[in-house]
Amino acid sequence: MNAREHFHDLLASLRPLLHAGEDFTLDYRAEVSEFVRFNRVRVRQAGQVRQAYATLALYLGERHADFELALTGVAGEDRDRLRHALERLRALVPALAPDPYLRADREAWQSESAQAGALPDGAEIVEQIADTAAGLDLVGIYAAGPQYRGFASSWGALGWHAASSFNFDWSLFHGNGQAVKCAYAGQHWDAPAFARRMASARERLEYLGRPALTLAPGDYRAYLAPAALDEILDLLSGGFSAQALASGASPLQRLYAGQATLSPLLTLDERIAGGLAPAFTSEGPRRDLRLLAAGLPGERLIGSRSAAEYGLTANGAGAHECPLSPRVAGGELDEGDVLSRLDTGLYIGNLWYTNFSDRPAGRLTGMTRFATFWVEDGRIQAPVETMRFDDSLFSFLGPHLEALTREPETILPAGTYGARQSGSRTLPGALVGRFTLTL
């Protein structure tokens, strides 16, 4: 039984079991993923994970509860499990207090999409990785395969999403213990593109053999590669939440209050088309949102509970109110001109351990860690010892943002704890005139 049939079989078995006055939502998640772990360019572990989960929520007026269950993929067994979950919820929900912020989506919407990725056989990809990384100390993990999401409600909502993707996350280690961290991800494996990315990593690895430079704390020109900017965007993703903004917990509070500005070069959209996340959440259909418009605040991400509490209109953001498919528009800087435009300063390939040093003020901190280089006259001179930065996003993404690269890069989350993460981010690199290192 394929995933779509599995979901619809569960749904068909559930509907006749409802009693008068009862409503439900059924959230379905599944994947068939291939994993390959590498160490010193050799395959150390390979396997496949096939798993499916469902979350059943039962509603009695303003009372509700949910039950998550692991599924076997065997139709009869899973129907029994779902029936048992309904019985458990039926015994629990009447004893619960009414939820004053419950605003269940009662629209009868429909959404279906299937994004087929063009992935070669796993053995072919492993062979290419081994060939392009020959002679290197490579450590990494390759994960690939289809992911599925289904949603249905007793009010007539029905959504289905299927997407295949891959993510190869790896590091190249120098003999001195330093490393270059890289990733290649998407829906269509392009052998020449991967070879170019590995060749670029080899080149940066050679520079790690030079004596590392220790910089004094201070302000420096810097280029933040897409992977580095991704760490920052990940930290800021909750800042567009209606709940966070209403409660004063957003790092973008000053922007929305008109007390600070971001660069007019920055436009950020939550894009449905082209993203790997479903076009719906358990709270309804998602839609395209402009979160930043030329540096100015745009729409907020509004879940149903925030809508109820603050008198807003929900826009399918889901309970977490974080963007699932954010896209930062590119600029005018060609990637081949990055070093010459930087001239003298820091090339930062990755940031690490990012966190807030002052959330209400939009101040961030973190480490450079992986392969940060000192550049002079447009040429890499030496690696830089690990440094901590502490800076305001309203500074380096405000008046000190000089340019964004022309072609944004799509980055997929590498997390696999419990299940492969879904969603994607598409973002360029950023050239900044001032970036503050503290120690």
From TrEMBL:
<dbReference type="InterPro" id="IPR045569">
    <property type="entry name" value="Metalloprtase-TldD/E_C"/>
</dbReference>
<feature type="domain" description="Metalloprotease TldD/E C-terminal">
    <location>
        <begin position="217"/>
        <end position="437"/>
    </location>
</feature>
<protein>
    <submittedName>
        <fullName>TldD/PmbA family protein</fullName>
    </submittedName>
</protein>
<dbReference type="Pfam" id="PF19289">
    <property type="entry name" value="PmbA_TldD_3rd"/>
</dbReference>
<dbReference type="InterPro" id="IPR036059">
    <property type="entry name" value="TldD/PmbA_sf"/>
</dbReference>
